[in-house]
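User: structure tokens for this one?
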Amino acid sequence: MELLSVSLGVYYGDFTLAAASENLTASQGRTLAVLRRGPAAMRALAETMTCDASNITGIIDRLEKRGLVRREPDASDRRVKNVVLTAEGERVTDAIRARMRTTRDGLDRLGDQDRDRLCALLERVFVSEPAG
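Assistant:
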């Protein structure tokens, strides 16, 4: 667990500096990273970010003012607002990832097989639902 804590600390520090280089807070940068996977409803975004809905509203308001995201009504329920990354939001997200040198350099020290194995292990530990 200690190694996981250290690795997450390095990643978070690297991410925070990279987001700051785009004049974003870590929370704003993380929101863009989540949206890079695809549009999300405001409620789902708050759950994913583990924050209060009012907090996510403020984050989205600031990102929207910068033209990085936009709100769109959901096709099946117009009361629901989905948040969508704009082309500029995609560019900024990619720029943040590109600036994460410490993380990228660490991962580059792994061969393809080791990277695939790390990805599979992380997915098994943090993403996959336990069978049952």
